[in-house]
Every structure is written in C-alpha cells, then in structure tokens.
Amino acid sequence: MYDKTKIPGYLIYEVTNGKPIYFKGYKEVLAGEKKFEWIKGYSTLHCWLKTNFSSMLVNSIDNTKFDVLSGEPGIKMEGDNWRVAQVAIFKRNKLVLNKKYAENAPEIVIEIDVQADTEDIGSDMKYIRDKVDEYLEKGVQKVIWVFTEAEIVVTCTEKGKWQVEGWEKDIETIRGVTINIAQMLKQRRENPAQ
After folding, report:
1. Which residue, among 59, 83, 60, has the nearest Cα to 73 in the 3D structure?
2. Is the dihedral of CA 135, 148, 62, 162 positive or negative?
3. What is residue 67's three-state secondary structure?
4. Is the pLDDT of residue 3 over 90?
5. Phi-psi region of 187 (alpha: psi -120 to 50; beta: other; left: phi over 0)
6. In the predicted model, is pLDDT for residue 1 greater than 60?
7. In this structure, how many other beta carbons lie within 10 angstroms of the beta carbon of residue 106?
8. Sequence ranges of the domains in the chain
9. Which residue has the higher pLDDT, 193 or 138?
10. 36, 54, 106, 179: which has the highest count of C-beta atoms within 10 A?
11. What are phi and psi of 26, to 5 degrees?
12. Alpha carbon 191 to chain centroid distance?
C-alpha cells in the first residue's frame, strides 16, 4: 500500500469529492515497473476514435455556435474538483479560451474507455456512474461513453437513464450529427493506405 500523501501530483488523473483519482497503472510507476509515459498513452484505436470524432464534429457542426475540444480538456467541477473529457462540445458563448480549465459545462462530452485507477472507488462501473452523474449535475446535456472492448456506446441525458447501443448504430452527438463507429471502421478497412 502506498502513502497517498506522497504520490506525485503528475499521477493524478482527476479530483472528485476532494480526493485524487490516479491514472490506471500508477502503482506500477511508483514501483519502478513502468514509466509514466507508458500509462499516460492510449491505444491506437482509442486515439483514432478520438481524432476522428473530433474531426467529424469540427466539420459537421455550426462553428459559429459551437466549439469542439479534444485531447483531454479539463472541466472545473464544484469546489477544487475537476474532470477531464476525451472530447467536449461547448456552446461558443460559454467557452472562455484561456490557460485554465473550462468553468462552464460543455453541451456534450464523449468519453472513451476508463483511464482512471478505480480500485479505491470500487469498480469501473461506479467510476463511470459517478462521473456521468457529476457531468449531468454540472449541466452537461449528454454524455456519450464508448467502450472499445465490448464495442458498445452508452448515452446518458439524465441521471439513471442510460441507453446502450452496439457500434453499428448511429449515435447522435449534437442535433443532426451522428457517429457510427462500425461504419467508420469499415470505411477505413475498405480504403487501405496506398
């Protein structure tokens, strides 16, 4: 067991309820078995999805009304708490561009898998439920969570009401803009690199 007061700050992924949530793999870093860079990075599928979601959204939404942020934008929660998203769609009039975490809630958050160590929380599902609920309490209108291992997408617009779909279904992000992961992957397979 590690003395949590001596864990370096760079291993903190998020803070909620005044308590740090560490990166998955932080114990291996502390034990010298892995480098921090190895646990901070993502799979190629994860990165490809995040990049393509962002690109598709930037090219499909009304950029005079909305901004798309990706690459783990920080979102300030109540008190000294903060969360990070994979992709977030903000109303432009609610997003202040500065060197701080976003103070206002995005309209939509897209998450991919779980990067947090959830041992102290209880389980990945409890972490997910808590994070979704916190987003909704902050004012996020829709949370979309992609699970690459199970190949499902969970959408939530109100506490306790989750819609689960397979990758082959169209998932609406913002009004009129959908993502279909199976279709995106099929297009990539059918159009191989030259």
Report:
1. 83
2. negative
3. strand
4. no
5. alpha
6. no
7. 28
8. 43-190
9. 138
10. 106
11. -60, -30
12. 28
Which of the 8 DSSP states describes residue 96?
A: -
Looking at domain 43-190, which CATH architecture does it have?
Alpha-Beta Complex (3.90)
CB 135 within 8 A of CB 83: yes
| Alpha-carbon separation of residue 30 from 3, 10, 37, 72, 189 (angstroms) | 11, 12, 13, 23, 40
**In this structure, are strands 82-84 and 87-91 parallel, antiparallel, or unpaired?**
unpaired
* Residue 142 amino acid letter: K
- Taking residue 151's Cβ as centre, other Cβ atoms within 10 Å add up to 13
The strand ranges marked E within the chain are 12-16, 19-22, 66-70, 74-76, 82-84, 87-91, 108-112, 142-147, 152-158, 161-166, 171-172, 178-179
- Could you tell me which of 115, 111, 109, 183 has the C-alpha nearest to residue 146? 111
63-95 as b/e: b if 16+ CB within 10 A: eeebbbbbebbebbbeeebbbbbbbbbbeeeeb
Distance CA 155, CA 163 (A): 5
Determine the length of the chain.
194
What does residue 81 show for φ and ψ, rounded to 5 degrees? -85, 150
pLDDT over threshold 80, residue 144 = yes
Q: What is the largest CA-CA distance in the chain?
A: 52
